[in-house]
Amino acid sequence: MSDPNTDTDDETVYYSGSSGGFGSVLGMAKVFARELSSPGTLDTLRRQNKPEGYMCSSCAWAKPPEPHAFEFCENGAKATIWDLTRDRCTPEFFATHTVTELREWADFDLEMQGRLTAPMRYDAASDRYVECGWDEAFTGIAAELKGVDPKSVVFYASGKASLETSYLYALLARAYGNNNLPDSSNMCHETTSVALKKVTGSPVGTCTLQDFDHCDAIFYFGQNPGTNSPRFLHPLQEAVKRGCKIIVFNPVKEVGLMRFINPQNPIQMLSQKPTELAHQYLQVRPGGDIAAIMGVVKRVLERDDMALAGGKPSILDPSFIEQHTSGWEAFRDKAHETDWADIEEHSGLRRADLEAAGDVYVGAEKVIAVYGMGLTQHVHGSQSIQMMVNLMLMRGNIGKKGAGVNPVRGHSNVQGQRTVGISEKPELVPLDKIQSQFGFDPPRDKGLTTVDACDGIKDGSVQGFLSLGGNLVRAVPDRNTMEPAWQRLAFTVFVATKLNRSHLIHGKASYLLPCLARPEEDVQASGPQSVSIEDSFSHIYGSRGKRSPAAATLKSELAIIAGIAKALLPVNPKLRWDAWTSDYALVRDEIAETYPEEFHDFNDRMWEAGGFYRGNSAHERIWKTESGKAEFTVPTVLSAVGVPGGNGRFHLITMRSNDQFNTTIYGMDDRLRGISGSRTVLLINPRDMKLQGLNEGDVVALVGDAGDDVHREVAGLKVTPFDLPDGCIGGYYPEMNPLVPLWYHDKASKTPASKGVPVRIRRDM
Ligand SMILES: Nc1nc2c(c(=O)[nH]1)N[C@H]1C(S)=C(S)[C@@H](COP(=O)(O)OP(=O)(O)OC[C@H]3O[C@@H](n4cnc5c(=O)[nH]c(N)nc54)[C@H](O)[C@@H]3O)O[C@H]1N2
Ligand SMILES: Nc1nc2c(c(=O)[nH]1)N[C@H]1C(S)=C(S)[C@@H](COP(=O)(O)OP(=O)(O)OC[C@H]3O[C@@H](n4cnc5c(=O)[nH]c(N)nc54)[C@H](O)[C@@H]3O)O[C@H]1N2
Ligand SMILES: [Mo]
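Above: the input record for the complex with MGD. Below: its predicted structure, written as tokens.
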């Protein structure tokens, strides 16, 4: 077992610190200094994540019913301030720069131009984006859409847009004629949507925030709360204080999971005495979670045998297993026959440590399993998730208070977008209901996932691409082949707040449509509007922006979707685009009609403190699976990576720094990992450095090693010693994306396997 207090070994001094505390306040002040000086910013932050307030657009963590005075974190504040910048990216800016020139700019510099202000159309003659009115944009886009086969168009969404906008976006795609509705989730938690759905019947987590007040242990896999969901650190800290034990599985020693100073707690801030979070921190190999959990399971079975042999009752939950599950015997047999030697090899962990984790599991009445991209972004990520569910089912840890599975979602409304119909999987959408509600026949055939859409862009079968937020060319794998393919598209349409690289890698026709950001006031014909979002716990909240918009010419995302729809679709009295735009409450009525069980009385309930719960069948122990039971499954592999390592072959983890939100880079530091000033680094442990003959500061290239004949490379990386398991290296997303093969994805869900990318190191002298 590794000791979270030890940050040194013989050769290297690793970064030591805690997340939260003054560091986080200082991190904020840095962004403040650059972006603040607009008096309303603090006021906006004060309203952030409060009932009746504005819901942060950074992560999907819960907004508690009794919020703190400042219910936001360093990174939530950064995201808000980033939206509220005073800088403007105006038509004059585009007049002075050709698109070819802007393609040479760094992503950071593009977003630093500030908020987009006017609808723009690409003009090939001058190679510039030129201003066009909204009407011209809508009719131009409609003409492009009418000119191609609807099946050749993709309607992508990044997980930020509200439930109201998302519902209408999905309706637009289906009324136009396709289910090509991939979403950022396809690169993120789609593994969850497929794998959890298969074995529990529910595609989302089964916990609520309150479960964290009652759990006895938390098994924590591959999620980094210090950076990606910092408000989660508060309930974790409270849980530890109650005596709850946290067992972390992560190849990287994330400071946020080891210790935490609460910036809301003045005494702790002054004394600087952090709460030690993890009871056991297990530096599993990338993809080694299946093996690690198998080890824990073996210990639990052993403890059960001991109990029974001693005449004591089973320590499993036999009546739960009997009544609620299928597949138990096959799974148990598999666990018995799996060798400890294989488990140790694939997990990179010692038997004794896994047994100690097994003892914690057995000693806890109520256990929560938490996870993030460390499980989902692997070739066998689905099996990792299902293995975790196996462990939970053994002692009935799903569907009881203080227990459950808790995927931590990414974008603030990514789960909600799926809930209200943004899905390429027609079987997940109530299409009959949509048909009767709106009087058109929605297509029934399968749509394209993000990976399918990229394949279609490459082979020319996709001709048009609409993007509701996001920065897809930066987020997807195989960038170096994707970018040229993108430019062969007939047309691209981007709804966005800031300029990014995707807008510059455009189709032959292209439109850039600037929208309001969530903190901004959205006034329509019936008055100021509110929107709603869903968090990781299936709670739904209203959000009301109050800031004056960045430009008078901006439209809301919803109004933009309606504008395109009106120009494109034949008149249908049931598709009331004008009425919906003038009053979003009418859209919520439609959502409530399509999904009555979850969204009844939507308009009345959306302001409930803490959000309203739309329910979850698995939470009630109703299993909407093929077998009608929760399913034990037998893993076919012990490691989730797709290509083996060893002998100079490495698995690359693509990581997020503390100074970024996905493809938006706020700065070059990664405070919680002690890295500053650069993102073009190769993180590698001193043992592997020695084996590779590398010294700190050497500049190297990473070369793809996936076994196909495509050359993939990222050069100019500075060797930086970092505490990682052997054979595993780290680098930053999105800089490393040229190394991820498009075909290297989770088998079941097609989520790109960005956490176990096969590479070799090449020395460039
Ligand atoms: N500030 C900020 N907040 C964000 C985001 C952001 O970029 N910045 N992004 C948002 C989005 S869209 C998402 S999806 C979430 C992402 O949040 P996370 O799910 O935390 O995603 P990552 O930071 O990519 O990586 C997760 C962790 O997995 C670990 N890991 C890597 N490989 C493995 C493995 O094989 N096994 C195990 N057990 N662990 C592994 C990594 O070391 C890392 O600590 O955050 C959201 N919130
Ligand atoms: N190698 C590697 N690749 C990854 C990942 C990884 O861990 N490793 N993570 C994956 C994950 S989890 C995800 S979710 C994807 C993210 O992929 P995306 O969701 O496509 O990317 P983002 O960076 O979140 O999108 C940022 C852009 O969204 C626009 N934007 C911001 N706010 C708004 C708004 O309110 N409205 C609108 N319309 N536009 C807005 C801005 O123009 C901004 O430039 O990347 C994936 N790619
Ligand atoms: Mo994500």
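Notes for the reader.
The longest helix spans residues 289-309.
Residues 184, 188, 410-411 surround molybdenum atom (ligand 3) (CB under 6 Å).
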